[in-house]
C-alpha cells in the first residue's frame, strides 16, 4: 500500500486546522492509501502549534516541524517536502482553499504514471478583483518569460512523486519559487482542474507586497529576460546616440548649421545615466544573489519536531558545516 505524505505549511491558521484535519482524516478512512500528515508551522503566534501538537499526540501519522520564526511560505513548504517520507508527496494549503477531497484524483493520475500532478484553478472565489487581476497577470508574465514551462493558474497544491521530490530537494536556493522548482524537475507532469474555494477562516497572509516579492523572485529566478531587456535597451540607446552624433556632425559639415550643444548634451547624459542605473540595478540583483548563496546559511532553523521524523535535516547548504559528511541528512540530499 503506497504511503502518501501530505505537506501542510501553517502560519496562524488556528481557525482552519481542526476542519482541515477532519477532512484529511476522512480521506484516509475512505481510501486504500496510507497517509502521513506533515505540518510545518512557520512561526505562528496563535494556537496553531498547540493544535498540531495535540493532533500529533492522538494520531501517530501526524508529524510536525516547528520553525523558530516565520521563514515564509516557500521555505515552510520546502521543509515539509524535505521531511516527507511517502512514495508521493502532496502539498496543500492549511486554509482549505484547496479542497482535500481532490487528493484521491491527484493520486489516481500519479498511479497512471505521472510524476507531477498539479491542480489547476478553473475559478477562484472569495478573492477581490485586484488580487484576481494581479494573479492573472502574474501567471501570464511568468509563463511567457520562464524557460521551464511553469503552468498558469496553478498554486502549490500538487502531488509529486518520490523521484521528483529527490530532485527538488537538491535545489537549495534561498529566493525560492516552489512551483517553478517543481516544474524545473521535469518528468511527466499533468493537471486536473478545480474550483478554488474561499478561505475557511482567518486572513490571507499574502498581501500585495508579499505577492510582488514572490512575483519578482519567480521572474528573476526562472528567466533571464530581464537581463536581456537591459542589454537590449542599452544597445538601442547607444545606437540612437551614435546616429544622433553623426547627424549633428553632417549638419555642421554639409549645411554649416551650428551645433546646439547643451540641449543635446543634457539629453544624452540623462539617457546614458538611465541606462547605467538600470544596468547597475540589474547587476546588483545578481550580485545580491551570489552574495546570499555564498553565505551558506541554513534555509531554516527548527525549534522542535516529531521524534519519528528523520534526524539531521536542519536546512544546511550542501557541504555546510553541520552536515558536511552526510549528504542525505544535510538538507541537500544527493549533494
Ligand atoms: N503560510 C506560511 N507562511 C507564511 C505565509 C503563509 O506557511 O509566511 C501558509 C498559510 O498558512 C497557508 C499557505 O501558506 O497554509 C498559503 O497562504 P495564504 O492562504 O495566506 O495565501 P493565498 O491563498 O492568499 O495565496
Ligand atoms: Mg489561501
How would you describe the overall organization of this protein?
The protein is an alpha/beta fold and 335 residues long. It has two domains: 3-223 and 297-305, Spore Coat Polysaccharide Biosynthesis Protein SpsA, Chain A (Alpha-Beta Complex); 225-294. Helix content is 47%, strand content 16%. The protein is built from ten helices and eight strands. The protein has an eight-stranded mixed sheet, sandwiched between helices. α6 crosses α7 (178-185). The protein is elongated, with a radius of gyration of 25 Å. The two termini are 30 Å apart. 32% of the residues are buried. Mean pLDDT is 82; it is low at 317-335. Bound molecules: uridine-5'-diphosphate and magnesium ion.
